[in-house]
Amino acid sequence: MAADKPRIAFIGLGAMGFGMATHLLKQGYAVTGFDIWPPTLERFRAAGGDTATTPSEAVRGHDYVVCMVATAAQAQSVLFEGESPALPALSESVSLLLCSTVPCAYVQSLETQLVEKGRGDVLLVDCPVSGGAGRAADGTLSIMAGGSDRALEKGRFLLQELSDTSKLYIVNGGIGAGSNMKMVHQVLAAVKILATGEGMGFAQQLGLDLTQTYESIQNSDASAWMFGHRGPRILSEFKPIASAITIILKDAGIITSEALRVGFPTPMTGTAEQVYFSSLGRGYGADDDSSLIRLYTEGAKGLASPLTEEDKARKFALVKGLLRGIYLCGTAESLVFAKRCQLDLNQVYDLCINAAGGSKMFETVGPEIISLLRGEQMVAEPNGESLQDVARQLQEAVAEAQRLRMPLYLGTEASNLIRLALKDASSLTQPLHRATIAKVWAA
Amino acid sequence: MAADKPRIAFIGLGAMGFGMATHLLKQGYAVTGFDIWPPTLERFRAAGGDTATTPSEAVRGHDYVVCMVATAAQAQSVLFEGESPALPALSESVSLLLCSTVPCAYVQSLETQLVEKGRGDVLLVDCPVSGGAGRAADGTLSIMAGGSDRALEKGRFLLQELSDTSKLYIVNGGIGAGSNMKMVHQVLAAVKILATGEGMGFAQQLGLDLTQTYESIQNSDASAWMFGHRGPRILSEFKPIASAITIILKDAGIITSEALRVGFPTPMTGTAEQVYFSSLGRGYGADDDSSLIRLYTEGAKGLASPLTEEDKARKFALVKGLLRGIYLCGTAESLVFAKRCQLDLNQVYDLCINAAGGSKMFETVGPEIISLLRGEQMVAEPNGESLQDVARQLQEAVAEAQRLRMPLYLGTEASNLIRLALKDASSLTQPLHRATIAKVWAA
């Protein structure tokens, strides 16, 4: 059976790439791996792979190349720069899968560069992935793939090998569309990773037990995938180091620099990015991103006496109000940006609810915002949650943090954004649908 | 001559109050001082004052009472709480000047409390001051005074003694209007104190000499009163400790809590406040606020080689672009808030250009924003600076900081706010007047 399967060149054997490449080995593919870190190559040979010592050597004679390096600069280097770049050794009509998370503008420039260098034959697929190292090794990643029909056709079996059956998204729009889809998802991720630290840090300053807080939040309408994953790592002293702060910072940078380029406002992601930068300055960059809670708990005082059940309930509600306000604004920022990037909003929604950016708030308010972005009139229902309701709960949290003299970077930002949405006179007299928050971002 | 002058009770002999009270002594008034800190009372006696050991004793038999405590809670305590509060000892129709910076809502509640306690005769003046300890001692403060005509009439000579001839502002609107005027001014102050640290921190990360940066900025259209005062203290290692971070944090809290109460968005002040809170968590609260630069320079690397003159000029321009973008948004936030507080915008402008919140940007764009808030059409002139011009320069700075991997809290916030203002399609094709930034805040 293995003899039927094509040989795959795999460039970039980091936490994600190593899992993906060894998964292909287990599926019976012959894989030639390349990485600049020699010990990784040894490990890959031990796992049954072949290895190469240059990008050129890795790709030569292969009909399929997967590139899973960390950044656009690394992809550029592997393909075009140095003594033995991959480009001249690429086979005619090779299938080149760029799985790295890179700016849309980069992967589009890559397509142009290939044409300019006479290699318009390369069948490039723009296919960033999501799901973490565990799912990479299981071949159950979420993958967002864009490219020409021919390129998608040739690469599809390989995308299918690497992804979960229901989580391979073919994104309309050609090269750049996959990266845009990933970028829009990462708006949710970048906001929610910091929100986890902010919410748990707030809980700690409120004197709440963090294990109880974690359970209370995740069993409520303030639950989120990220909170579910980072929360336990906060409880286990930021171990294991599963995702360094520098990783989400890189993705945040892609979002904010692309937003700057096209003139789109990203106040939520921008706020998160500044806090990530501040953690970098303090030497926390390589630490697990759950450790961002430290930026919220400095100088915290303990409580004089234990909390009553009533106090606890009131304080859990404050943390929920904070998180839900943040998630509402994060949802709006991601979906309006998706519209701006001309992505299919239903597909964005479908992808995000099943991925790391998902949350109960995204799940419920997402379809409402999508309706609003399609021009439907969104009217608050008498028994539904209004924007003013979300605002009130968030603002109680912000006011409490002010009394505690602690920062709530995202909560304050969200509170101000909601006030921007509510500033028209009509909002003083009648409840607005919570989806109207999206009008702050929408043109 | 001194015999003609009434005796003054003076409560609160801190850095500001001590200067004000001793200035009154020098002008020939008999002054009875009170403070909870005994060594201060000794110093005040040495300066020729009388002292009292309780608020009640201090005010008894006096026709004029100045209250210059630090917070609303202290004012409340002095007047109504404890064993010997001032209230029962206040003379009939006493002139009570509350010079502390307090929320509008507090001084209004004070007026109500006096009436409720049967002391509607008290001639309360709401008269916060600005200008620092030096001008307090010289009797040349800026004072913003609101109250009933009778109260203002009775207290006027005392306000005149404490203020510069041209800097006593009688604010229309009764009790609360003086505090609102101060609050609106402090929007500028709170933003510009952090902006000084942000601009100088950015300069340091760019490898610029800070003395040269200071001179370049202050000789340009990016100059500001705060930068002029905090800049030199940055150059002298945050000495002297002239204004602790906790002081501007208190004022920022008045702004953001009042804004929250009335539903007004204050994204610039809110951002500054979160950074102030983070400095508090790190134990910097009592340090001079010029030391906020430390939050921007952590982990900074030195430059490999000296800068060329061309590099320097380019980098000074980046710092200017950053500061001017921040000041533009700070100006808009303060003036739209002033309108919301129903203040006389011309008076706000006149006060702010001559006070600590002033800057070249405020001076030039302020009248334009006031025109816009009065409903005038503001059209960008072909040779004038457009909002897009300010945006471009700011965004170059933000992009450079991203490369340096450092936070620009205010710059990023301002950049996103300008993008909110520019999001309509018209802004893609035609230059907008820079005053149109105010539409982000305006209802």
Could you please describe the fold and organization of this structure?
- The structure is a homodimer of 443-residue chains.
- The first copy, chain A, is of the alpha/beta class.
- Helices cover 55% and strands 9% of the residues of chain A.
- Chain A folds into two domains: 2-175, NAD(P)-binding Rossmann-like Domain (Rossmann fold), CATH 3.40.50; 181-440, N-(1-d-carboxylethyl)-l-norvaline Dehydrogenase, domain 2.
- The first copy, chain A, has 19 helices and nine strands.
- In chain A, strands 1, 2, 3, 4, 5, 6, 7, 8 and 9 form a nine-stranded mixed β-sheet that branches.
- In chain A, helix 2 (38-46) links the parallel strand 2 (31-34) and strand 3 (50-51).
- In chain A, helix 8 (177-205) crosses helix 11 and helix 12 packs antiparallel against helix 18 (409-421).
- Chains A and B meet through helix 11, helix 12, helix 13, helix 17 and helix 18 of A and helix 11, helix 12, helix 13, helix 17 and helix 18 of B.
- Chains A, B: InterPro entries: 3-OH-isobutyrate_DH-rel_CS, 6-PGluconate_DH-like_C_sf, 6PGD_dom2, 6PGDH_NADP-bd, HIBADH-like_NADP-bd, NAD(P)-bd_dom_sf.
- Chains A, B: Residues 7-165 form the 6-phosphogluconate dehydrogenase NADP-binding domain.
- Chains A, B: Pfam families: NAD_binding_11, NAD_binding_2.
- Chains A, B: This is 6-phosphogluconate dehydrogenase NADP-binding domain-containing protein.
Entry keywords:
homodimer, Rossmann fold, 9-stranded mixed β-sheet, 443 residues, alpha/beta, 55% helix
